[in-house]
Automatic annotation (TrEMBL):
Belongs to the ArsC family. This is Arsenate reductase. It comes from the Bacteria. Signal peptide: none annotated. The lineage of its organism: Bacteria, Pseudomonadati, Bacteroidota, Flavobacteriia, Flavobacteriales. It comes from Chryseobacterium hagamense. Pfam families: ArsC. InterPro entries: Arsenate_reductase-like (IPR006660), Thioredoxin-like_sf (IPR036249).
Length: 116
């Protein structure tokens, strides 16, 4: 089964997961969420596979979040729209295997997820 990786090339953790998958012969497809942002529907699908709310995948230490969104009370739907418009605010990498997904940090968790 090909694993999908929601990826940002500027993220060291995301790059580490790709390196791990490559070194271990795990077939994967890269989805660069910066160059090809997810739609609102795609974000909702990922959240279902993660079995998490949108609040689980927001990068709260990102400069854009701190300057523009911190302390504000947005609904889940509003956050999904914000993330679709600002993919840098999405935690990465997110690893998708069939109908399930996980945040790919730390890399050690990816091994368990892939082997399962």
């Amino acid at each position: 089964m090909v694993v999908k990786v929601l990826h940002n090339g500027n993220c060291s953790k995301s790059n580490a997961v790709l390196e791990y998958l490559d070194e271990n012969g795990v077939p994967f497809e890269i989805i660069n969420i910066i160059e090809d942002p997810l739609s609102e529907l795609e974000i909702k699908t990922v959240l279902k596979k993660l079995n998490q709310s949108v609040f689980h995948i927001i990068r709260k230490n990102e400069k854009l979040y701190v300057e523009k969104y911190a302390g504000k009370n947005y609904s889940e739907e509003e956050w999904i729209k914000i993330l679709a418009e600002n993919p840098r605010l999405i935690q990465r990498p997110i690893i998708i295997k069939g109908s399930v997904a996980m945040l790919g940090r730390p890399v050690e968790n990816v091994k368990y997820f892939i082997d399962k």
